[in-house]
Structures are given as C-alpha cells and as structure tokens.
Amino acid sequence: MKKLILIVIGGILLATFTTHAIAAMYDLKTITPAIQQALDARRGRFNELQSLKSQGIVGENKAGYVEVVTSDETAHAIINAENQDRKLIYQAIADQNGLTSALGTIEAVFAEVQRSKAQPGEHIQLENGAWVTK
User: Of 14, 21, 40, 81, which is most buried by a Cβ count within 10 Å?
Assistant: First the structure.
C-alpha cells in the first residue's frame, strides 16, 4: 500500500512538473493563416462569449474548452466555433513544439488559465469534474 501511495504521489509530482514545464515551453512559432483566422475569430466572438458566461449559460470546462451548463440551445453555435478554434490553436502549439503526445496536458494547462481568468459568478469545472460558480 505504501508503495502504491508513493507511486501515486510521484505521478502527481511528475504531472505537476510536466504541466509547468510544458506551460513554459508553449509558443506558437509560426502563425499560419489557419491559426490567424482562429485567433481573429476568437477575438471577434469574445464579447458574446463573455456575455454567455456572465449570464451563467456557458462555463470553462476542465479540458480547456467552453461548455453549455444550462439548457440554452442558442449558445451551441458559438461554443462549437470557440472550441474548434481552441483545438486548432492547442494542436498547433503541440505540433510546433514537438509535444504531439502532450495535447491533453496542453488542454489542461489552458483550462487552468481559463479558470483563473474567470470572473466572479462564472461557471468553471474543477479538475475533479465538479462545476462551481467562481
């Protein structure tokens, strides 16, 4: 049992170190037309997305994406577009930095960034999967 606990603790420490190390390595080395389009689209929908967040319709999930947290069907189009752009950017970061096997970690790091940037009253999903209001 002690050996298992040490392995788990070691894994948590390694994951924490890896997350911080990868976060420090994030860099878009090349802004391709597709990446520029995704960045511009995200800027263009920022106010609408913020409005959905402040209304409690949308939240930041633990995987680095936005998610509808109420039964509002009208928000799905903006959420799908936002998540497609985020996925493209995350994948570009992974590809351009030789981190293709670390996409999940990249998403988790960005999820933490989004949680920390969330405003009071907005929904965020914790790492354990629970949704809370910040």
Answer: 81
Mean pLDDT of the chain: 82
Q: What span, in angstroms and rounded, lies between the C-alpha atoms of 107 and 73? A: 25
Looking at the DSSP bridge assignments, the partners of residue 58 are 68
Report the pLDDT value the prediction gives residue 71, as an integer from 0 to 100. Answer: 77
Residues 6+ apart with CB under 8 A from 63: 107, 108, 111
Range of the domain at 35: 2-133
**Percentages of the chain per state (helix, strand, coil), in multiples of 5:** 65, 10, 25
pTM: 0.75
Strands (E), the chain: 58-60, 66-68, 123-125, 131-133
Q: Closest Cα partner for 63 from 1, 6, 124?
A: 124
Residue 70 structure tokens:
């109420």
